[in-house]
Every structure is written in structure tokens, then in C-alpha cells.
TrEMBL record:
This is ABC transporter ATP-binding protein. It is a multi-pass membrane protein. Residues 343-576 form the ABC transporter domain. GO terms for cellular component: plasma membrane. It is found in: Cell membrane. Residues 19-309 form the ABC transmembrane type-1 domain. Keywords: ATP-binding, Cell membrane, Membrane, Nucleotide-binding, Transmembrane, Transmembrane helix, Transport.
């Protein structure tokens, strides 16, 4: 069975401990029949037997030994139960720890497409609730099944050794119990799969609402979001109740069967005692162990519920466990090289989920050149730069760096040659210093300051409560959009890579600051090819070349002067951004 194989595979390093736990479970459970057996001896010898009185006088030593035996076995079982639980807990916790690391690495190794198709809330549910369910299954469900089965089998063997006919009478209840259990399992399984899906939706909604907290407040949509959350919560709660209550449809039958064991024992057992076929002590042994047969039947519903939840959770974990990224790092043992920084797009087309967003794009950038990319929103600018570090792979054509297809380069090496400031700025919950030096933790403090100066960030950082030690990001001091962009720019420059990609990095800074940044970019003290996505002519004007993109196609290419002379898209944007002139153009058509 796949689930058991998977657990076994992941128990590596803890298998001995887990097997020990299973053995202790079997031993501890088998000992359950010891006390009923001793009880039977005491009753038959000292209470109900013909020579009971005499035996009390003659065999007092045996009575004491039997009583001490009962106490001893009780203590032994308690000690074993303690040891057993400890082994289950340790092995399951260790396994959970290892699997969590493995899954985390797996998630880290996924490409952008994976993140496009997986919700954060869902991934979080897999990494927390689902993993805990698997651990619970190892430490509790399997333990319960093993112990119930052992007690059941041990009790049956003991019963058969006393009287086969009475035991067979009791066993006539087993087939209907299993039929009911089977029907219940069949009905409840899809419910738990559905329940797991709803939990994921609930968590995703919660995560999105917390992340989008500012937008919700800005649009005063709290009530709408609360309603949305309440709907998901009600959905989950309803599914939870339905799954839990379905057990009640089967519970009366199983409970009746469980009670019927006692009735059969009383009628058939009483008859056999009267007939002298079994002794009163043997009847008492049956009576004190009948729970070992009826309880597993009673608990079968709880166990089936948990097993179905385990299946549903494991199916979700396995989605991460066996997920294979399309873009993988071969980890070839090469010494990381520093590229020159020549970039060439050779008839590149690209599709997102079957929709083509780049059509036959070709252009070249020489090492050290600065290229600006401009174009209407959604025209494919970010998509172009995403292909350079292989966040995505081309659908057709090739992207070459220093003449080599990026798909043939070692991924770590490739990305280690690119500094990038993405359009959505994300800062970590860390100091400003830690954020700037994120790509190079060894960066000396004076270098951090230097890059902050180049990114026009030093002045505002200096004025912050703890300067470069101020904590920013999710839990830290709030920063303006422009301030965040400047820290992200310093972070991208500080890694001193031969290719620097800036995706709309100065869109939120004022013109004066932008001029300072443009100046800094031109005077970087390391060789660097720059690709700058920008909407402002003031940013693109000094680039060696400007590409104009429209609908995934390059429609214009040239220097600032060449493109102005063309009087196309770039010219229009230039005129619009130079107030007054822009209006004249609009009026004159
Ligand atoms: N992860 C994605 N999955 C599917 N489609 C996407 C994805 N990212 C972008 N797109 C689509 O691809 C097209 C190009 O997007 P891209 O982000 O490259 O445009 P852009 O020119 O950078 O836009 P902007 O100036 O608004 O940032 C758009 O139509 C967009 O809807």
C-alpha cells in the first residue's frame, strides 16, 4: 500500500525506534489477558470452586502469588505503555522534522510556475496541519490499530483455549460489524477529501485577507471580507459537521452489536456454566475480557475517520513531496564563473498557460551596455526580464548569455551573475543593513552605506530611529513605496553582479532622487550590463538603446534621439511627459 510504503521510506533513521514501539505495543497489549487469567485462577481456586474454603487455608501462598502477579502485571503494563508512547512520540516527531525540512527544500526548489498555481494558504496548510495529521497517524492511529488488533487476537486465542463453542457464538457478530464498518469507510472518504479542500480554502482566504489588510482598509471593505471569510468558515464547519455526524448513522448498529456481545455471553456463557461445560472462573475471564472484542468494534468509526483524514492529508503532502520543477538546477560541480554580460534574445516566444505573451522577440545587449525597456502595461516587459534568470523558460527561441543558451548554464551560477530589483518590492523582517546585504551577508558595513548612498537611501535611513539597525519589513517600521524601492535597488547593486535588472525600480521616487540614481547607475565601479524597465523618459533617455514593447512585440528600437526622430510610440510618450508640449500634440492630432 502506497501510504505505508511512504511512511516506511520516511522513517529512515527512526525505523529501529518505531519498530521497537510497535513491538512494545504488541507485548503490552498481549499482557492484557494476564490479569483475567489470574482472576480466573483466583475465582476457580479460592472463591467458586468446590474446595475453595480448603484451598484458602492450604494454598494461601498461591493466592498471595496470584494477587502479587496481578499487581505486577498491572505495573508492567503501565511501564510498557509509558515506554511505548515515548518511542512513538520520538520516532514520529523526528520523522515529522525530517519530512518538514524535505518539503521546505522542495518548495524552495520549485519554479515560478509552481508558485503561480499554488496558493500560499494551501502550501501553509500542507506544511502545518497535514504534516501534523501524518504524525498523529504514526503516533496514535497506527498505535491504536496495532493495540486493538493484538488485544482482539490475544483475547480470541484465550477464549478459544477456554471454550471454542462459546467463542464461535460471540464471533457470529463479527461479519455484520465489518460490513457496517466497510459501508461507513466508503461513504466518509470523499467527505474528508472535500473537508481538506475546504480547510485549504479557509486558510487561503485568511492569509490573503491578512496580506491585503491595507487594501481592505483603504476601500473600507472589512464587512465584505468578513462576510467572505464567514462564508468559507461556515463551509468548512458544515463539511466538518457532516463528516463527523455521518458516523452517527452507523453508530447505533455498531453500538448494538457491541452490547450484543454481553447478551450472547450472558445467555450462551450462563447456559454453559449451568451445564458444567465451563467453570465460573472461566465465565468470569470471558466477562472481564469481552471489552477486548467489543471495544475495537465500538472504536472502529473513530479509527476509520482518522484513517480517512490521514489519507486526505497525505495525498496533499505527496503533491509537494513528488513535485518536479520544470526548471531544475543540475548542480554541476563547476567553479562559479563571472559572465561578461552579453545577452541575446533569439526569436523568443513565451506562453503563460497556453496564452502567448511574447511573440518572436529578438534583440542583443553587449556587455556593459544599458538597455531600457518601455511599453504599455501588460505588454510583456517583466516577462522578458524573467526569462534571463530562468524564472520561466522560453516557449520558443533562445535566450543566450555570452553566447550560451541559459538552459545549458548552471542555474546557481546563472542567477549568481544577475542582480535584480523586482517590480513588487519585498523586504524581509530584518534590519535595513540585513536587507541591503541580503545577497552578500559578508558585505562590510561601509559598503552597505555606500550602496545606500548610490541608491539615494542613505539620507532617510540615517534619520530612522536606529539607522541601519532599524527593523523593517512585515513586523518593522513602515516605509514609503519610494523608500522600499531604494532599499531594493541598493540590495540589487550591492551584489555587484555583471548583469543588473531593474524592473520599474524608480517609479515611486521623485525626479530629483531619480536623477541621483541614474547618475549612480552610470558610475558603478564594476562592469555591468543594465536592463532597466521604466515608464519615464527621464529614466530611459540616457540608455544606450531603448526597446519599445507592445502586445509582446518589439515595435521600436533605438537611442533616445533615434526614437524621437521616428515619431512613434516613444515620441508620443516623450511629448505627453513634457507638459504643455504633450497637450499641443494632442490638440493638433
Ligand atoms: N504569472 C502569470 N501567469 C499568467 N499570465 C501572466 C503572468 N504574469 C503576467 N501575465 C500576463 O502576461 C502579460 C505580460 O505581463 P508582464 O508582467 O510581462 O507585463 P508588463 O509589461 O511588465 O506590465 P506592467 O508594466 O504592468 O508591469 C500580461 O497580459 C499579463 O496578464
Amino acid at each position: 500500500m502506497f501510504e505505508i510504503k511512504w511512511l516506511w521510506q520516511n522513517l529512515q533513521g527512526n525505523r529501529t525506534r518505531y519498530i521497537l514501539a510497535l513491538c512494545l505495543s504488541v507485548i503490552g497489549s498481549s499482557l492484557t489477558i494476564a490479569n483475567p487469567y489470574l482472576g480466573q485462577r483466583i475465582i476457580d481456586t479460592f472463591i467458586a470452586g468446590d474446595d475453595a474454603r480448603q484451598n484458602l487455608i492450604d494454598q494461601r501462598g498461591l493466592l498471595i502469588a496470584l494477587c502479587l502477579g496481578m499487581i505486577g502485571f498491572s505495573l508492567l503494563r503501565t511501564g510498557l505503555a509509558y515506554l511505548t508512547t515515548m518511542q512513538y512520540e520520538r520516532s514520529s516527531q523526528n520523522t515529522l522534522y525530517n519530512v518538514r525540512i524535505y518539503l521546505y527544500n522542495k518548495i524552495q526548489g520549485q519554479d515560478m510556475e509552481y508558485y503561480d498555481h499554488n496558493r500560499t494558504g494551501d502550501l501553509m496548510t500542507k506544511m502545518t496541519g497535514d504534516l501534523e495529521m501524518v504524525r498523529h497517524s504514526m503516533a496514535w492511529i497506527i498505535k491504536t490499530i496495532i493495540e486493538s488488533l493484538t488485544i482482539f487476537v490475544a483475547a480470541l486465542i484465550y477464549f478459544f483455549s477456554i471454550d471454542a463453542v462459546l467463542t464461535l457464538w460471540l464471533l457470529i457478530l463479527a461479519p455484520p460489524v465489518f460490513v457496517v464498518a466497510f459501508l461507513f469507510a466508503k461513504r466518509v472518504r470523499p467527505m474528508y477529501i472535500d473537508l481538506r479542500e475546504r480547510l485549504s480554502q479557509l486558510n487561503s482566504t485568511t492569509q490573503e485577507n491578512i496580506a491585503a489588510n491595507r487594501v481592505i482598509k483603504a476601500f473600507a471593505r472589512e464587512e465584505f471580507e468578513i462576510e467572505k471569510f464567514t462564508a468559507k468558515n461556515a463551509n468548512f464547519s458544515k463539511a466538518n459537521k457532516t463528516a463527523a455526524l455521518v458516523w452517527l448513522d452507523y453508530f447505533p448498529y455498531l453500538e448494538t452489536f457491541a452490547q450484543a456481545f454481553n447478551v450472547i455471553l450472558m445467555i450462551a456463557g450462563g447456559y454453559l456454566v449451568i451445564k458444567g461445560r465451563i467453570t465460573f472462573g472461566e465465565y468470569a475471564a470471558f466477562s472481564s475480557l469481552i471489552w477486548a472484542v467489543s471495544n475495537p468494534m465500538r472504536n472502529i468509526g473513530i479509527i476509520i475517520n482518522d484513517i480517512q483524514r490521514f489519507f486526505a492529508s497525505l495525498a496533499k503532502i505527496v503533491e509537494i513531496y513528488y513535485a518536479k520543477p520544470g526548471i531544475v538546477n543540475e548542480h554541476r560541480a563547476v567553479e562559479k564563473r563571472r559572465y561578461d554580460g552579453n545577452i541575446r534574445f533569439d526569436h523568443v516566444s513565451f506562453k503563460y498557460d497556453g496564452t502567448t505573451v511574447l511573440h518572436d522577440v529578438s534583440f542583443s545587449v553587449q556587455a556593459g551596455e544599458t538597455i531600457a525597456i518601455m511599453g504599455s502595461t501588460g505588454s510583456g516587459k517583466t516577462t522578458i526580464v524573467n526569462l534571463i534568470p530562468r524564472f520561466y523558460d522560453v516557449s520558443e527561441g533562445r535566450v543566450l548569455i555570452d553566447g550560451v543558451d541559459v538552459r545549458e548554464l548552471e542555474l546557481d551560477e546563472l542567477r549568481g551573475n544577475i542582480g535584480i530589483a523586482t517590480q513588487d518590492v519585498l523586504l524581509f523582517s530584518d534590519t535595513i543593513d540585513g536587507n541591503i546585504a541580503y545577497g552578500d551577508p559578508e558585505l562590510p558595513e561601509e559598503e552597505t552605506v555606500r550602496y545606500a548612498e548610490l541608491a539615494a537611501a542613505h539620507d532617510f535611513i540615517r534619520k530612522m530611529p536606529d539607522g541601519y539597525d532599524t527593523i523593517v519589513g512585515e513586523r518593522g517600521v513602515g516605509l514609503s513605496g519610494g523608500q522600499k524601492q531604494r532599499i531594493a535597488l541598493a540590495r540589487a547593486m550591492a551584489v555587484r553582479r555583471p548583469i543588473l535588472i531593474l524592473d520599474d525600480t524608480t517609479s515611486a521616487v521623485d525626479l530629483e532622487t531619480e536623477t541621483h540614481i541614474q547618475q549612480s547607475l552610470r558610475s558603478l565601479d564594476h562592469d555591468c550590463t543594465k536592463i532597466i524597465i521604466a515608464q519615464r523618459v527621464s529614466t530611459t533617455a540616457k540608455a544606450d538603446r531603448i526597446l519599445i514593447l507592445d502586445n509582446g512585440r518589439i515595435i521600436e528600437e533605438g537611442t533616445h534621439a533615434e526614437l524621437l526622430a521616428k515619431r512613434g510610440y516613444y515620441y508620443d510618450v516623450f511629448m505627453l511627459q513634457n507638459e504643455g508640449l504633450g497637450r499641443q500634440v494632442a490638440v493638433s492630432g
